[in-house]
Amino acid sequence: MATAQLTAADIQKLAEWDSPTICNGLEHLSADYRVKSFTVEHMQCFDVTLPPIVGYARTAMIRAMTPPEGTQEEIREMRAQYYETIAADPTPSISVIQDLDPTPGFGAFWGEVNTAIHQGLGCLGVITNGSFRDIDACAPGFQLLGGKIAPSHAWVHLVDIECEVNIFGMAVKPNDIIHADRHGAVVVPHHCVQELPEAIDLLTRREAVILEVARKPGFNVKILKKAMADSAEIH
Q1: What is the reported pTM?
Q2: pLDDT tens, residue by residue, 8-23
Q3: DSSP assignment of 138-161, as one string?
């Protein structure tokens, strides 16, 4: 696992910025990140007031429109194994679950019980194309970013764990580093984590030059052109 060089402080540092800023920083490090590694659809956010979450992805796939296959013992064992991955190192974890149903979110995996369990196991939140419910009873501080809000859990069950998933265009592998907030989610490559603060600082200083003049009385295109030129000289 390529995380030995990263510290908890390195991971937590990324929570100082929102996901658009993280995306900007990644784009500065490589133009490749302009077209990959982030969600590209609108998502329901459980609590828009929560700060960004940053953690290690624990992945799974679910279905809810049909009953689970296998014995009750096999079903319980897969669920137990999934919870073990949530609690395993490295931490903190973020659950990333792809709903495979033709109508994703037909049945909600997330609600009062599962948010409490996951939060108790050290998980910060979930990213899913599926649904969540019990919005008045979900664990406070546990962030949910999902495809929709729905009333029933139907036949919801796990069909795979520790697998590669795709959530609204964002491909995720187990233990990828995820940054998420009310805007959506983005995968932060391990090798970019320690480089991002410096990149974001540079971009912030460049933007500050333009924002300063744009917010002053008398702002015009001539002033803007000079500010853009001055901004480009900042390294």
Answers
A1: 0.94
A2: 999 999 999 999 999 9
A3: SPTT-EEEESEE-S--TT-EEEEE
Dump pLDDT digits (tens) for 131-144.
999 999 999 999 99
Instruction: Extract the tokens encoding 100.
Output: 């495979």
Sequence-distant (≥ 6) Cβ neighbours of residue 86 within 8 angstroms: 58, 93, 95, 118, 121, 122, 123
- Structure confidence at residue 195 as a pLDDT band (50, 70, 90): very high
Exposure letters 11-25 (e unless 16+ CB within 10 A, then b): bebbbebebebbbbb
The CA distance from 156 to 139, in Å, is 20
Domain 8-189 has CATH 3.90.550.10: no
Cα 196–198–199 angle (5° rounding)? 60
Question: What H or E segment, with its residue span, contains residue 206?
Answer: helix 196-214
On the 0-12 / 13-18 / 19+ scale of CB atoms within 10 A, 151 is exposed
Using DSSP's 3-state secondary structure scheme, residue 100 falls into: coil
Domain parsing of the chain, residue ranges = 8-189, 196-232
